[in-house]
Recover the amino acids of this structure.
């Protein structure tokens, strides 16, 4: 598979109350292939939301990207770094190359407009040759693609169930056939039956349409259902990234193991859930050494003073002193 996105050294800071910057994402580096689903997991405060607002250029002050590149490789044409792109050029990218699905569909859908009209607005803004009739038909087709009868295009968002709204917002994100869809906890606000249906639809649509996904959630077992690879974030850094199945069955980073065991598995046998003791680090004053050391049951004296650097282990990148890193 060819590369779609190259994220290299992405660092995002917030201006702190005392003037000292707070680093919410540090040196984030990964590649995403065309058609790949990359899951990003971590507790709240791990930096995953900051990461997606930086990737999609939706961040607002006081957050600032202070370093790094996000190189998009279009199907035709030269690679483009999204970070320095002007708003005018970004508008051309949004929807057609890159779109986003938010946690709550009510944040994406305008409550005062019929759902179908929101589709035709997006479609006709990006294709001025499209007639109203053709745009309405396309809206109905897009809704049908996620299992919503075309006549529901006339409904207002509040006339749809939560699950239907979320599926409509996924269809809207796909309206202009982007090659990357960033999904921020897209199944958190729906029940488990709808969650399963949405995951199945994402997998089917990805197979049929070939778009790539960055799927962000706090729920690691859920990612096993949908992701090809998983990146685990802690304290603003990626601490482990690799193939989804092997990362889940054999986590190399103690935090990945803790996150896995903190949720019930969706398919495997029941197991005793064990939470991770303590709280995520305060990024205004992160601990020295490994940011996870105050919560890690395997921490050594070195962990409290030396930060582990990401290194390759078993076809994964892991940032932990215990996983064979050169010191
Ligand atoms: Fe635990 Fe040390 Fe590994 Fe950090 S580097 S996860 S503290 S063992």
């Amino acid at each position: 598979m060819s590369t779609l996105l190259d994220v290299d050294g992405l660092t995002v800071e917030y201006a702190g109350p005392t003037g000292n910057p707070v680093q919410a994402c540090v040196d984030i580096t990964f590649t995403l292939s065309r058609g790949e689903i990359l899951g990003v997991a971590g507790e709240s405060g791990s930096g995953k939301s900051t990461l997606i607002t930086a990737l999609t250029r939706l961040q607002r002050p006081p957050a600032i990207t202070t370093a790094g590149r996000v190189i998009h490789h279009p199907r035709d044409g030269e690679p483009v770094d999204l970070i320095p792109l002007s708003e005018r050029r970004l508008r051309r990218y949004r929807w057609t190359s890159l779109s986003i699905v938010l946690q709550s569909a009510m944040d994406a859908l305008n409550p005062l407009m019929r759902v179908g009209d929101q589709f035709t607005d997006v479609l006709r803004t990006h294709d001025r040759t499209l007639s109203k009739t053709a745009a309405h038909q396309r809206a109905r087709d897009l809704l049908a693609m996620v299992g919503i009868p075309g006549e529901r295009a006339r409904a207002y968002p509040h006339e749809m169930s939560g699950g239907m709204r979320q599926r409509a917002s996924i269809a809207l994100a796909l309206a202009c056939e982007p090659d990357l869809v960033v999904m921020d906890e897209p199944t958190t606000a729906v029940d488990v039956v709808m969650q399963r249906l949405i995951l199945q639809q994402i997998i089917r649509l990805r197979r049929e349409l070939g778009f790539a996904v960055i799927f962000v959630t706090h729920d690691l077992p859920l990612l096993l259902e949908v992701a090809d690879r998983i990146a685990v974030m802690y304290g603003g850094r990626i601490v482990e990234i690799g193939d989804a199945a092997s990362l889940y069955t054999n986590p190399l980073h103690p935090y990945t193991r803790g996150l896995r065991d903190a949720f019930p598995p969706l398919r495997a046998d029941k197991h005793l859930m064990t939470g991770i003791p303590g709280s995520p680090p305060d990024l205004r004053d992160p601990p020295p050494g490994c940011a996870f050391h105050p919560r890690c049951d395997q921490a050594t004296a070195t962990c409290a003073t030396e930060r582990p650097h990401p290194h390759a282990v078993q076809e994964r990148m892991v940032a932990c002193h215990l996983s064979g890193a050169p010191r």
